[in-house]
Amino acid sequence: MAIANRPARRSGHLASVAIPLAGLLALFLGAFLSDWAYYRTEHIQWINFAAWLNAGAMVLTGIALATSIIAAVFSRRSWRGWWLVVALVAATFVLGLFGAFVHARDAFATMPDGLVLSLLTLAVAIAANWAAFSRGFRGDWR
């Protein structure tokens, strides 16, 4: 009886992209919820919390952008599968940077721009995670 075993794939660079992507999604979600809480209550501490969550998410977004570019360049598969992930993470970085600039304003001056930018950044971060986790980490880049 012959049993066909497939060799295990080594996907270390894929995990280096997956961990910051998952983390930035949680932090951008927290920033959006903090902006929403400030919009509803006008307690200044919520906007401070949103600014710190946005800053932490920007660190993880920079790491995710760097590792996704490295994974795209050194991947054995074609670049074609990685362009969407790299583009969405770059768009998340740009929107998050604009959000950080808006959150640097005075507390009341951040609304409604901060809330809208947090929502847009969260939507693009969700799209980046979906693009990466739906096909990329299973190795289906065709």
Report on this model:
With 142 residues, the protein is mainly alpha-helical. It has 4 helices and no strands. It has helices at residues 12-41, 44-74, 83-103, 113-134. The longest helix has 31 residues, at 44-74. It starts with 11 loop residues before the first helix and ends in an 8-residue tail after the last helix.
List the helices and strands and how they pair.
Elements: H1 12-41, H2 44-74, H3 83-103, H4 113-134
Helix pairs in contact: 1-2, 1-4, 2-3, 3-4
In short:
Helices cover 73% and strands 0% of the residues. It has 142 residues and is mostly helical.
User: Strand content of the residues, in percent?
Assistant: under 5%
Helicity range: over 70%
Order of helices and strands: HHHH
Low-confidence sequence ranges? none
Q: What's the alpha carbon Rg, rounded to whole Å?
A: 18 Å
Report the major sheet: none
Ends distance: 34 Å
Strand element count? 0
Structural class: mainly alpha
Q: What form results from the Cα inertia axes?
A: elongated
Give short descriptive properties of this protein:
single chain; about 0% strand; 4 helices; about 140 residues; mainly alpha
